[in-house]
Amino acid sequence: MIQNYFKKNSTFQGYYFRRRFRKFKPLYERIVEDLTREYDFFEQRPDARGTPGFTPLQKYIAALCRLAYDIPLDALDESFWMLAKTARDSLH
Fold first, then answer.
1. Alpha carbon distance, N-terminus to C-terminus of the chain
2. How far is Cα 9 from Cα 36, in angstroms, rounded to an integer?
């Protein structure tokens, strides 16, 4: 998802982002910046092995998917490779 919409040379441009997420991309980025500034949870930290953890954007999008589609937390494991605990914490 990040490669498709948020990288510098992304696969899809602004029109497709707006069509899929029904918001402008700068609004998403501003919300993620505000979340990162207000809540320590949304900062990207290394995991126990030292590899980078989830980005603030991934945590925010996982929480939105959970709210919008009312999917079980385990379903995020398949699409985001995110454990239920991380998805639950990002929702809270």
1. 22
2. 24
Q: Record the tokens describing residue 56, joined without a space.
A: 């603030």
Rounded Cα distance between 44 and 52, Å, is 7
Residues 29-45: tens digit of each pLDDT: 898 899 899 988 888 88
pTM beyond 0.90: the answer is no
What distance in Å separates the CA atoms of residue 14 and residue 8, rounded to the nearest whole number? 12
What's the token pair of residue 6?
């948020």
Place of tokens 């937390």: 73
- Residue indicated by tokens 């092995």: 49
